[in-house]
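Notebook entry, structure prediction.
Reason for the run: the old model in the group folder had no record of what sequence produced it. Starting over properly, with the input documented here first.
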Amino acid sequence: MWDEQFEEILRTFLPFLPPREPLTADVELKDLGLDSLGMVQLLGTLEEAYQVRFRDSALTMDTFRSAGVLWETVEGMRLRAKS
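New structure, fully documented this time:
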């Protein structure tokens, strides 16, 4: 799935997710309280933490729809940066 750092970062932007409740790959992030301002802040935090840059094509609501989709995007950027 994803690494611990990703989940720790993401949880800080999800005010409606109780601390002990598992974060699943398919849950809608907006249902857990991620709003547009949070998306911008989350994007910057992920770029800094993983040393990646979100391409314009990744700056969509779909990218931030769920934890699974967001992690796939970050992981794809990390793999491209290594090659």
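Summary: The mean pLDDT is 95.
The old model has been moved to the deprecated folder.
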